[in-house]
């Protein structure tokens, strides 16, 4: 690669090209998990660019959480170990952005959660180990504490559905649900918080858990469908509330 003049518009493009080349090596396994990358000077020589351009390329990879830096005598830049949680974080921001802009509306959210959630609870009923069932139950215990804030309630709600997704035995589905739950549940909770009855939500959670313990996939799915139907009614009431005139002005 030929280095353009420093601060020229092409310099960032060149850094992006180097970042793409290194990313491909990571994805293809040429650079393995926890492997230390060559030094900035070595990479600059390899690509025929300045150290500053290499440094910019590494910043791009770090922002995508593909690499991490470690200080000390055994330090350097290392390939990050992949994880479902890390991958989910990378997608959640984009999903939250879509919801905030209205690209994904409430009807989309309800339909998606219903279709995917049915699969999750059915598979969890069929496949979950005792430890996984206990992990689901553990997410329900904190709901009984006094003084839980709306933010905490939302976090616990997300944790409950994450635990079910983890119990499906399907990592692809688990990853998808990380994205769906982490981005869509908080967005809808913001809309429904004034109209949602916490006890109703927790009651549906308890019904789902009881069905999972009995390995009753049919009842687990029915309880989940009841939860989504209730939440859909809450969203409708919330949207109606937004349209009610206040002082002669409609809230939107």
Task: Label this structure with key terms.
single chain, about 250 residues, mainly alpha, Arc Repressor Mutant, subunit A, Four Helix Bundle (Hemerythrin (Met), subunit A), 2 domains, two-stranded antiparallel ribbon, 10 helices, 4 strands, elongated
Helix/strand-derived class? Answer: mainly alpha
Indicate the low-confidence ranges by residue numbers. Answer: 4-11, 246-252
Strand order, largest beta sheet: 1-2
Q: Helicity range of the residues?
A: 55-70%
Task: Please outline the major beta sheet.
Answer: 2 strands, antiparallel
Query: Percent of residues in beta strands?
Result: under 5%
Average residue pLDDT: 84
Radius of gyration over C-alpha positions, nearest whole angstrom: 24 Å
Report how far the terminal alpha carbons are from each other: 53 Å
Count up the helices: 10
CATH architecture of the largest domain: Up-down Bundle
Number of strands: 4
CATH classification, class level of the largest domain: Mainly Alpha
Brief overview:
Helix 1 crosses helix 3 (51-63). The longest helix is centred in the C-terminal third of the chain and has 27 residues, at 217-243. Helices cover 69% and strands 5% of the residues.
Structure notes:
The protein is mainly α and 252 residues long. It is built from 10 helices and 4 strands, in the order H-H-H-E-E-H-H-H-H-H-H-H-E-E. It has helices spanning 10-28, 40-47, 51-63, 84-101, 106-127, 130-140, 150-166, 171-192, 198-213, 217-243, and strands at 67-70, 76-79, 245-246, 249-250. A two-stranded antiparallel ribbon has the order 1-2. The longest helix has 27 residues, at 217-243. It is elongated, with a radius of gyration of 24 Å. Mean pLDDT is 84; it is low at 4-11 and 246-252.
């Amino acid at each position: 690669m030929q280095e353009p003049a420093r601060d020229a518009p092409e310099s960032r493009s060149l850094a992006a090209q180097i970042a793409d080349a290194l990313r491909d090596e990571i994805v293809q396994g040429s650079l393995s998990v926890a492997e230390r990358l060559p030094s900035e000077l070595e990479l600059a020589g390899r690509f025929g660019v300045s150290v500053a351009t290499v440094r910019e390329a590494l910043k791009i990879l770090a922002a995508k959480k593909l690499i991490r830096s470690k200080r000390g005598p055994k330090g350097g830049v290392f390939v990050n170990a992949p994880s479902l949680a890390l991958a989910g974080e990378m997608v959640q921001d984009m999903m939250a952005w879509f919801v905030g802009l209205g690209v994904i509306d409430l009807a989309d959210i309800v339909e998606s959660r219903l279709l995917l959630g049915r699969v999750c609870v059915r598979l969890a009923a069929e496949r979950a180990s005792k430890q996984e069932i206990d992990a689901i139950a553990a997410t329900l215990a904190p709901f009984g504490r006094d003084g839980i804030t709306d933010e905490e309630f939302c976090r616990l709600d997300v944790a409950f559905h994450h635990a079910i997704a983890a119990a499906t035995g399907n990592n692809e589905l688990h990853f998808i649900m990380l994205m769906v739950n982490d981005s869509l549940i908080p967005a809808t909770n913001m809309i429904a918080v004034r109209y949602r009855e916490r006890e109703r939500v927790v009651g549906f959670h308890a019904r789902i858990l009881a069905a999972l313990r009995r390995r009753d996939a049919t009842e687990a799915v029915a309880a989940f469908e009841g939860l989504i139907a209730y939440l859909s009614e809450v969203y409708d009431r919330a949207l109606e509330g937004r349209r009610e005139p206040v002082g002669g002005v409609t809230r939107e």
